[in-house]
Amino acid sequence: MTAQPQGSRRQFLQGLAAAGTASVLLPSANRAFGYQSANDRPVFATIGLRNQGWAITSKSFRFADFAALADVDANVLGENVAKVEKGQGKKPDAYGDYRKILDRKDIDAVMIATPDHWHTKIAVEAMKAGKDVYCEKPLTLTIAEGKLIEKVVKETGRVFQVGTMQRTESNHRFLLAIALIRAGRIGTVKKVTCGIDHMESSPVIPEAAVPTGLDWDTWLGPAPKVPYRALPEVRKGYGGGVPLYSNCHYAFRNWHEYSGGKLTDWGAHHVDIACWALGATETGPSKITPVDYKLPVEYKNGNPVVDDQYNAATRFNIRVAMPKNVEMIITSEGDNGILFEGTEGRFFVNRGKVTGKPAEQLKDNPLPEGAIEAVYGGKVSANHTANFIESMKSRQQPISDVWSHNRMLEICHLANIAMRLGRELNWNPANREIVGDAEANSFLARENRKGFEINM
To answer: Which parts of the sequence belong to the Gfo/Idh/MocA-like oxidoreductase N-terminal domain (predicted)?
Structure first.
């Protein structure tokens, strides 16, 4: 695909800024994007195509042209090339090696939806190659990775959006929740509980033949080299069509080598909204206490002693001391969502509802005009990609920026470290270090496997 004139792309982005952010007030505004010339649209590529990779790509057809796709699984790659060709009317180029995408001068931005342990390497190298970046949540595998991404965003001036879509989508219920708090509808916030579900342990998962088409060594990438493991039973529903129990597709979320279990998978959504509501997006906790929890395998010195079963915590109640004497609870119990409790009331919010007296009172006592838009910092966008492309035009960071994301994700990472070590952690949010615990601090970073270092 040849490079398009930058001037015409800028004109498209300016049009998007005017139309996309008004979509909550004028839903039909998005139809205007269909009238844009194909030559005027920004050029994207997606790296990592299962599940969320396809979801964020298909949501973006009306805003951008996809020139290329990359995945280490040839079956996934081929299937998604066909779907993208059908969706946009033009076949994208296909690569097993994402670096070929970064070498191309015609691609303006990359969307990254690989397993978590690959996010930082690809994102940093993409920014160094002059690409703006959209990366799925959770953004990082470690706290040190978050600091590195922040450094490179600052150095390169690239626009970077994290895929925490609750900040823009889910019918804006979470924006409403924050507006209620800012309007004082529950008085002073004293406690916030983030319900993020539990996960199940696994049986012993034996070594198995690597599926045809999967480049297993590259899938592992920065993580330690280990055998592929899987049981025959197939996963159904979301993420289906792959082994229910494995150390690869979808199930990677349950292994600390590649992700952080429910703490980072769902915590990256609800802890994010909680921190935003508390005004704690530029700071962090002072103490993380694992009140009770269950690890599915035995641990020694913070590391699992077996390598053939899921190892992320299955159940947990974590107490977090937040600024202004607010208590945060992160729990695998109860309803998935966020409960805010203050001196004058309480309410609950998730993707399907906002319940409690403060919400019921809105009928007779509505929020001031513009209160929800004020949370967002302007008119509200109903599409995460629209906000990303608007930011590409303005060269301002989007609503889901790396700094606020990393601050809240540090809470999730620290909760996992506390459970792995079986003790309370004291955190210095200014220095972003664990206080007086050298062993715990050693878990803030991980060394990439040789041959998969980050190319700076």
So the answer is: 91-163
